Every structure is written in C-alpha cells, then in structure tokens.
C-alpha cells in the first residue's frame, strides 16, 4: 500500500478530501496500517458511514487490505468490528441496554408509511394548530400545484408541519422537552422574524383607515366599476383592470387581515399609464401611497409570530403523542435509533464507558453530511476514543434537505486549527485527466475563492476528447422559454433534441475512452455518458427525447403504480376477487395495453353491461374460469397465474416500453411476496385488516411514496445513457458528463424552515441550535429582507451541487450554455472561464460549437399561408445494437433522405390558451387531446372535459364557448380537406413493423376518414409553428395506421393553422 495514503494514529485527525482524492482508499489503507502496527485491534474498530452499501464496501476493502498484508487472523476478526450506518449503530446501543432502560429488547422498526400514518394520526389530535386550520388562506395555505398534482391548503400545512418535525429531530430537539425548553425554541425563532421585519407602527387602525378612505374616494368619484375599468380610463391592460377590481371588492373588514389585498393595491409598472396619463391619477396615488405602508403595518408581523407559535407548539404536541404511541407498542423509527441512543449514553455515564470501552478508534466518513443529533452521539465516543479519524469535504455538502449541516464540519475544522497536525488535506485527484482537472480547479477558485484547495491531477491516462465542450445556444436563434410566442425553437424543448443529437454523434463517431478497470482504450458506449440535471422532471423529458432518437436510457423515475402493465394486472386481480367491481373490469378491458381504448369498443361494452352478466368479452371468459382456483392462493401466486394465462410478458414485449413494463411486473411480484410476509401488527398499525387482493392494493397505495420508483430494466445495460440528478450523482463517475441547468438559478422558498445556530464553537452549536421559520410576507420589500437571510446558504448549496456534478467527469465535460442566463446562475461563474478559453481557440482542453435550430431539424422562420416547405429528414443510425421496438419520433430513417413538401391552410377561430399558462406543457397537451377526443367521440360529455383542469375555465362561460367554436371551426376545415367525414378516430393505438422488422408503436391523435381521402392529424398546443421535426414520426405512424396512401397533417390549434404533408 502507498505510504502517502496512510495517516498517523493520533487522538484527533480531520481530513479534508476533495472530489476523486481517494478518501476511501486512504481510510482502508490507514486502518490496515494501524492494525498491522498494533495501534488498534481488528475487532475493536468503530467506523460509521451513511449508507449500508458504503458500510459494506468499507468493511470489504479493509478486509482485502489486511489480507494483502498477510494478516489472515485480523481479517477474520474484522467481522466483529462495528462498521455500519449511524442508525444501525444506534439501534445496537438500544438493544444492548433495553432491559436496563425499560425498553423493548427487540424494538420493531417502523416503515416509512407506518411512520407517516402515526404522525398524521397524532396531528389530527393536536389543538395548537387550530388557528391555522380555521383561516388557512390568511397564513398562506391557499392550495396550489405541487409538481403536477394539485394540493389543498390543509395538505400544504401538513407538509410544512412534517418538514418542521424533521428539522427538530435532526437537531435532537422537541422530544420530551420541558416548557422552558419549548419557550426558548419559540423565543429564538420569533426573535429572528421580529428583528428582520423591522420597526412596525403601533396604530394599525390608523394605517388601515388611510387606505380605506383612499378606496372610498375612488368609489365616490366613480360609482360605476365598469366605467373606471374601461380601456380609456384605468383599465388599459389586464393588471390595471385587476387593480380596479380589487378596489371595488375591498371592504374595511378585509383590510384588517387580507394582506394579499394590500399588496395588490400597491403600485407596479403595469399601472404607470394611470400615473402618467389619467386626469384623476391622484386618486390612484392615494391608494398606492396608503398601501405602501403595509411594510410597517403590525398586522403581518403579528400573523407571522402567531404562525410560528402554532407550528412549534403543534409540533411539540405531535412529537409527544407520536413518541408515546411508539413506546407503548415497542416501535422505533430511524431518528429514534440515534436520539434514544444519544439520550441513553448522555444520562448514564457507566453505559457510555461500557460502549466506548469496546473500541480503539472511531472513523466517521462523509462528515459533511452529518446532522447535529448524529454528531452529538458520536462526539461522546470521540472524547473517549484513542484515535479518531473524521473525513469530509465541505464542497460536497448537498444533503441539507435530509437534515445534514456542513456548518458542523466547518466549525470543527475551525476549532481544530490550534491543534498540531490535526487537519490533513488530500489534495490529489485520481479520477480526471489533467486537462479536466485544470478546468475543475479554475471552476473551484471561481466558486469558492480562497477557500478552494486546488487538486493535483494523479490520473495516469490521457484522453482524445477535449476536456470541455461548450454547446452554445445563441438567443438570436433560440428562445429560453420553450412556450414563448415566437417562431424560434425553445431551449428546453427542441434544445433537448439538439443535445440528444450531439450525444448520438458522440456515440457513433468512433470516439475512444479509457476503461476504468483495464486502463485500456475502447470504443465509447452509452453507459460511458451521464446526463446530470437539477431535477427529475428535466431528466424525464430528456429521457423521452433520447429514446425517440433510438438510444437506451438508464434513469430512476417515479410512476410504478401508474404504469399500464401494473394497473392492468391489478385490475384483473381485483375483478377476479370481486366480480361486482365493474370499474376494475371496465378499466382492464379498455386499457391501451391490450389496445382496448377504442371508443367504439367502449360503447359496445357499456351497451352490453348488465348486473347479471357484467361485461361480456372473450377476455372476461378467459379470465373468469380462474376465479375458483385462484382466490384462495397467496397474492403472488394469483398474479403469476394471471400473467401465465394471458401471456402478459409476451404482450408487453412488443410495447415501446416493454422492458420497463416487464421490470415493473417483476417488482410487483416481489412486493406481493413482501406483503404476504408482513406481520399482522404491521398491517394493523397502517389501518389494514387481513391479507387479500383489496388490502394488497391499499397497502401499495399507502406505500406509494416509498415504492413508486420504477426499477431499472437493465442496470448493467452497456448501451444505455445514464440520467441522474446532481444529488444522485454524488460518489459516481463517468468518462463523459453533460451537465444541464447551469443557466437556472434557484430562488428561496417560503415558508422557509432551516436549522440555525448561535455564534460560537461546536459545543454551542450542538446545545443552542434551533429551527428558524421564515413565513411568507405579501409586501415585496418585506419579503426581500427575509430572502436576504437565505441567499448565502442557497447560493452555497447551488455551488456545491454544481461542483459535485462537474467533478463526476473523467475525460470530458459537456456544457450546454444559454446566452442570457439568470443572475446568480452557475453560468455566471464559469462563463468568464469559457470565454477566456474560446479566445485561445480549439485545443485538447477546449472545444466550442454554436448550436443552430437545424440541429433539432427545425425550419427557421414561420410558415406563411400557402407556403410550400421543403424538408430534409436525415439518417441517425447508431453503431450499437438496433432496438427491437421504437417510437418513431426522431427514429432513424432507413431510406437516408426523404424529400417532401408541406402546404399550409388556415381555419377560424384559433384557440387562445393563455389562460392555461399555469399548467405544465404536458398537462396542457393532455387536456387539449382529451377535449378533442370527447368532442368527436362523446360530445355530450364535453362540458365535463372542459372542467378537468381546476382553475381554468370551469366557471368561464365565455372561454367554454370559445373552445367549442374552435372545435367547430376545426371540424369544418377537416371536412373541406377530406370531404364528408364517415368516421373520426381519436387517440388511436397503433402497432406494426417497419421495413427493418422493428415494432412501430404509439398513439395517433386523430384519423379523419372522408369521401375524398383519409388524413392522420397530430394536434400541437405549442406557441411556435415548426412542423419539420415531426414529419418523420408522423409518416411512420401513418404507414402503420392508414397506409402510405393516406395524408398527414399537423394542427397548430393556437394559430388556427394546418400543415399538410405532400410527398414527391
């Protein structure tokens, strides 16, 4: 072993280890050396890390190091050492002293769903939060979207309380607290808000009266609201009309508590025409001036302090009830494993001496991810250990959302500066090439300044790739907003296509990389490339584009229970066990998995339904004979019987997502087995009685938060491009890394709940820590003052995340760069570095490309009426194995090039979708497709379809009429194109083979069959009209759905434009 990797055995050693510095190798080498020289015994090691996999890996590597030294006996003794997670170590302490402490000798660990249920049950009994529940909107729990799901205000409050509970437990606070301790926590939290809010005036009534008098003056001058709201008066734009509406809906009572109304009555740029041009602008100015005094009004501050008091006292109540329930039932959760162990050792010095006497040394890995409670436990042992080795990297502190806090390591390093040789630095990097490392060092200095320790490249290999490849998206050609009103393609939408094409070119271009294990050059594979992004949604959108381009992907994504194959077999299971469940039968018979979504088939099923015969079909007859023999079997056996009877694995094999569907089915079988093995006490704690098909599905839904991750179809797939979040990339590495989202800047969110510490050393941090709660304030200036408190921590976390993502690269970093990035974005830091390299020209270090819209196969400029567009659809073959099943969008065109022209026609009216800007692009697209489908197939249900998306048009009669008029105009236009229509087919499921024997599978929006021909139509709800990226896909679909003699069209519904393809 290398002597440079061995650290001396001393009382107190802190190691700052940079990315790729070989910290794991250093730990294993150091421990093996300490054992070899008799400093520690192999069975007296306490080593703590934060995942079970990491603990197992550490144990195995230390064992191998001992074997290489010929220490066979010591390698065997190592099994008796404690090398584990902090939670497993805490649980061992609880078991050791269970009898003496009066606890269960075999405490059962709560599952996450059980913990969630018990916490929510305790929350239901809490009285302290009633003031919040009684007026949710007043405290900013107004409901809204959380991801794609709408969340009610009460659920937002519940999430806030659960988040606060997590922070309290990370600090070791709140459980069994005395009234004095609770008061101290409350005083600390409220003091931060009071000090930041600033001086509030005492006379709230006087401030409110000023605003009310200004409002009454307007109403007196203009009794008719409609008059003042006209465009030639104050209502010259939408925001101005809203301002007028808010004036007339205001009451004296509302002004006493509705701070949102105050903020709406404040001046903004949209109201400047009133100020500049209206003869009675003085009336508006009186309102603006009075409303500006919101920032000194005592009301918002009082509400904020009451909000904090309700939250903190409510959490204390919840934790008391929760802990009592667990103790009575002999249950523990993850936090208990640490905090109960910490309490046991703190309150019983003799027990602490007994535990500490078992070990010669303490090793703590990844210390930057430790939370205060965990370190409180370990610190007691550290004080009594002969040798301590603590390893971490402040630049890789990214787990704050889990309660960790890098300030512990920073403070510990600061406290240790006075100790001789206590702080060691691992300043080598064994991962990246010298060229990549040079760039990373430059980035590190930009991000961290003097705090950054440059790393010396140690990797003994070279790369043929430029270390940094910048892909520039110039704003003259690209829109940053994919939904912007412009003919230019959007960066996050079509830009994904351009990035996918770049990866495809890299994989097919004969690129060589160095194999990590053999050290030899070999052709690059898909799994050598990682795409790293800030969040899962970005990755899922990019994964769809990569798949469409014919590439395999490896991505962890949710949606297990929503998967078609899982839903289908669960419906069969439910239908066979309960023949009365007509919904399960209807769902399984109309599933797209078995091409059952045809509306005509649905109508036939509904017409043939009766209470006696249920739904008659060949499939129901085939399945129902299984009922008698199946319903007495275990759930897993029932599922296997269904799979075998209908040959479900064969059905999913030809589906575009067949591999994923199969993996999900296998996971479902494993979950069924786990369900059968559960103890009845576990199910009872979740409110589930018995084990049957119905309770199995209840259990699945209650565990959805834990089990909704879809398994990887092939974790070892060599040809699959890897997609991970910045967080999830930590500890991993790839030859080529593309890092997305550098143009974005994360903003502070409110209410904000963070851990806070007074100034001082490590002891004061541990003893006097508290939870800082910053409510949302409606006054903009006030909110900005509170945002300042969070900016530094937010910026530091963003820097760490980006640094972690960049340092995953061995040979090349690919950086998509948007021109015109947000202030505070990571491009703000690295653009000067890229610009300096660009001026030097291309080299082994740096390469740069301007990405033009043609890289995404987009036509530059908008199509005008009757304009003929020439298309060039190019081949995109990959050298690796050809896919058995493809979705044609961006799939390879075997003919090489296909020349075609498109003709543009218009219809009226276009559909204005601006009211739907709050929806995601996917959510809007789904709603639009559903509306078209219902209009043509089930028009009597149209009013219901129009109200499927909450908050859009369900109460807007004008908008409903506009949608209907648009649909009628589109229908008339189709009849002009194909003559009298005999049939409208919507959301048509198709599957077939192309000339290369690949399965073409997908869903067609609309097929119109008329006297003069048949037309396949694809609806587009995007703001730009850019047809030429879609024809290749649609031609493939058309050939399968209606044959090559049919027509193909794109319906740009926002514009009332139809592009119809005509082939040469």
Question: What does it look like?
Answer:
This protein is of the alpha/beta class and 1064 residues long. Strands 26, 27, 28, 29, 30, 31, 32 and 33 form an eight-stranded mixed sheet that branches. It has a seven-stranded parallel sheet with strand order 17-20-16-21-24-13-25, with helices on both faces. Helix 4 crosses helix 18 (334-347), helix 9 packs antiparallel against helix 17 (298-329) and helix 23 packs across helix 24. The longest helix has 32 residues, at 298-329. The N and C termini lie far apart (70 Å). Mean pLDDT is 83; it is low at 596-600, 609-613 and 858-898.
Please outline the helices and strands:
Blueprint: E1 13-17, H1 23-36, E2 45-49, H2 52-68, H3 72-77, E3 82-85, H4 86-96, H5 98-101, E4 108-109, H6 112-124, H7 130-134, E5 144-146, E6 149-151, H8 153-171, H9 179-197, H10 204-221, H11 225-228, H12 238-249, H13 252-255, H14 259-264, H15 272-277, H16 281-291, H17 298-329, E7 331-332, H18 334-347, H19 349-356, E8 361-364, H20 372-382, E9 387-392, H21 407-416, E10 423-426, E11 428-429, H22 434-448, E12 456-457, E13 468-473, H23 494-508, E14 512-514, E15 521-523, E16 529-533, H24 536-548, E17 552-555, E18 557-558, H25 564-577, H26 582-589, H27 599-607, H28 618-624, H29 627-630, H30 635-646, H31 648-653, H32 658-677, H33 680-685, H34 693-702, H35 704-707, E19 709-710, E20 720-725, E21 734-739, E22 752-756, H36 762-768, E23 770-774, H37 780-806, E24 809-818, H38 827-840, E25 846-850, E26 869-873, E27 885-886, E28 898-906, H39 921-937, H40 942-945, H41 957-978, E29 981-993, E30 999-1010, E31 1013-1020, H42 1031-1041, E32 1047-1052, E33 1057-1063
Parallel strand pairs: 1-9, 1-10, 2-3, 2-8, 4-7, 8-9, 11-12, 13-24, 13-25, 16-20, 16-21, 17-20, 21-24, 27-30, 31-32
Antiparallel strand pairs: 5-6, 14-15, 18-19, 22-23, 26-28, 28-33, 29-30, 30-31, 32-33
């Amino acid at each position: 072993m290398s002597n440079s990797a061995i650290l001396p055995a001393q009382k107190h050693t802190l190691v700052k280890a940079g990315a790729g510095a070989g910290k794991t190798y250093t730990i294993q080498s150091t421990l093996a050396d300490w054992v070899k020289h008799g400093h520690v015994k192999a069975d007296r090691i306490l080593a703590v890390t934060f995942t079970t996999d990491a603990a197992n890996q550490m144990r195995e590597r230390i064992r191998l190091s001992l074997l290489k030294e010929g220490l066979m006996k010591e390698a065997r003794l190592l099994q008796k050492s404690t090398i584990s997670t902090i939670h497993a170590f805490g649980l061992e302490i609880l078991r050791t002293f269970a009898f003496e402490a009066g606890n269960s000798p075999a405490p059962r660990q709560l599952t996450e769903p059980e913990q969630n249920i018990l916490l929510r049950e305790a929350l239901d009994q809490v009285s302290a939060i009633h003031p919040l529940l009684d007026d949710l909107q007043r405290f900013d729990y107004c409901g809204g979207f959380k991801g794609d799901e709408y969340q009610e205000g009460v659920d937002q409050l519940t999430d806030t309380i659960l988040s606060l509970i997590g922070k309290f437990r990370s600090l070791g606070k709140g459980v069994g607290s005395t009234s004095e301790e609770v008061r101290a926590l409350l005083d600390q939290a409220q003091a931060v808000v009071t000090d930041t809010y600033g001086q509030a005036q005492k006379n709230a009534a006087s401030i409110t009266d000023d605003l009310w008098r200004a409002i009454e003056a307007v109403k007196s001058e203009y009794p008719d609201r409609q008059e003042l709201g006209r465009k030639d008066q104050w209502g010259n734009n939408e925001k101005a009309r809203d301002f007028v509406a808010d004036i007339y809906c205001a009451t004296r009572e509302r002004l006493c508590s509705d701070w949102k109304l105050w903020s709406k009555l404040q001046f903004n740029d949209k109201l400047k025409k009133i100020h500049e041009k209206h003869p009675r602008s003085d009336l508006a100015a009186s309102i603006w001036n009075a409303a500006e005094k919101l920032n000194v009004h005592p009301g918002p501050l009082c509400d904020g302090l009451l909000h904090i008091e309700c939250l903190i006292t409510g959490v204390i109540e919840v934790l008391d009830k929760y802990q009592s329930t667990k103790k009575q039932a002999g249950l523990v959760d993850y936090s208990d494993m640490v905090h109960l162990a910490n309490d046991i050792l703190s309150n019983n010095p003799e027990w602490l001496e007994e535990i500490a006497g078992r070990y010669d040394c303490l090793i703590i890995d990844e210390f930057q991810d430790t939370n205060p409670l965990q370190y409180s436990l370990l610190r007691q042992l550290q004080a009594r250990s002969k040798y301590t080795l603590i390893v971490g990297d402040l630049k890789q502190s990214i787990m704050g959302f889990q309660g960790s806090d890098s300030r512990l390591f920073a403070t510990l390093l600061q406290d240790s500066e006075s100790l001789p040789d206590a702080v060691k630095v691992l300043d080598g990097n064994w991962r990246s090439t010298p060229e990549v490392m040079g760039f990373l060092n430059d980035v590190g200095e930009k991000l961290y300044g003097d705090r950054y320790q440059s790393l010396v490249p140690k990797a003994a290999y070279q790369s043929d790739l430029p270390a940094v490849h910048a892909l520039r998206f110039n704003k003259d050609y690209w829109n940053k907003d994919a939904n912007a009103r412009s003919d230019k393609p959007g960066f996050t939408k079509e830009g994904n296509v351009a990035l996918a094409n770049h990866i495809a070119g890299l994989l097919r271009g004969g690129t060589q990389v160095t194999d990590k294990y053999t050290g030899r050059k070999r052709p690059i594979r898909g799994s050598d490339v990682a795409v790293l992004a800030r969040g899962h949604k970005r990755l899922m959108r990019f994964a769809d584009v990569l798949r469409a381009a014919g590439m395999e992907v490896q991505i962890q994504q949710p949606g297990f229970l929503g998967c078609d194959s899982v839903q289908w077999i669960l419906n069969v299971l439910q239908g066979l066990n309960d023949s009365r469940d007509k919904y399960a039968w209807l769902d399984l018979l109309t599933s797209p998995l078995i091409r059952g979504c045809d509306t005509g088939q649905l109508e036939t099923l509904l017409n043939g339904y009766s209470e006696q015969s249920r739904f008659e079909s060949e499939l129901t007859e085939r399945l129902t004979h299984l009922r008698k023999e199946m319903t007495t079997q275990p759930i897993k056996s029932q599922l296997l019987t269904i799979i075998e009877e209908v040959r479900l694995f064969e059905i999913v094999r030809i589906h575009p997502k067949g591999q994923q569907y199969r993996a999900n089915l296998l996971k479902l079988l494993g979950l069924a087995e786990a369900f059968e093995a559960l103890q009845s006490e576990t199910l009872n704690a979740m409110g589930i009685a018995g084990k049957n098909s119905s309770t199995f599905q209840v259990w699945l839904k209650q565990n959805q938060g834990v089990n909704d991750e879809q398994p990887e179809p092939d974790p070892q797939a060599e040809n699959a491009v890897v997609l991970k979040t910045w967080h999830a990339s930590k500890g991993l590495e790839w030859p080529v890394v593309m890092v997305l989202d550098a143009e974005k800047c994360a903003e502070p969110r409110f209410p904000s709940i963070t851990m806070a510490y007074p100034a001082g050393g490590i002891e004061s941090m541990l003893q006097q820590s508290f939870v800082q709660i910053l409510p949302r304030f409606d006054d903009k200036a006030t909110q900005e003052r509170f945002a300042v408190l969070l900016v530094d921590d937010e910026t530091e976390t963003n820097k760490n995340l980006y640094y972690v993502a960049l340092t995953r690269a061995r040979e090349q970093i690919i950086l998509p760069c948007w021109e015109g990035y947000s202030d505070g974005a990571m491009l703000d830091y690295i653009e000067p570095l890229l610009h300096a390299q660009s001026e030097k020209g291309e080299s082994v270090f740096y390469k740069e490309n301007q990405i033009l819209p043609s890289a995404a196969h987009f036509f530059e400029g908008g199509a005008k009426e009757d304009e003929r567009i020439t298309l060039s659809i190019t081949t995109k073959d990959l050298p690796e194995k050809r896919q058995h099943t493809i979705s044609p969008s961006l799939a390879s065109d075997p003919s090489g090039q296909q020349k075609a022209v498109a003709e543009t026609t218009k219809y009226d009216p276009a559909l204005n979708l601006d009211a739907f800007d709050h929806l995601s692009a996917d959510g809007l697209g789904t709603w639009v497709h559903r509306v078209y489908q219902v209009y043509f197939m089930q028009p009597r249900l149209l009013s219901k379809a129009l109200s499927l998306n909450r908050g859009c048009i369900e109460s807007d009669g004008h908008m409903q009429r506009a949608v209907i008029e648009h649909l009628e105009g589109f229908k008339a236009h189709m009849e002009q194109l194909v003559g009298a229509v005999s049939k409208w087919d919507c959301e048509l499921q198709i599957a077939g083979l192309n000339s290369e024997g690949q399965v073409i599978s997908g869903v067609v929006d609309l097929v119109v069959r008329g006297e003069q021909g048949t037309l396949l139509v694809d609806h587009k709800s995007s703001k730009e009209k850019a047809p030429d990226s879609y024809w290749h896909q649609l031609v493939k679909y058309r050939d399968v759905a209606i044959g090559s003699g049919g027509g193909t069209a794109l319906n740009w519904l926002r514009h009332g434009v139809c592009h119809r393809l005509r082939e040469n």
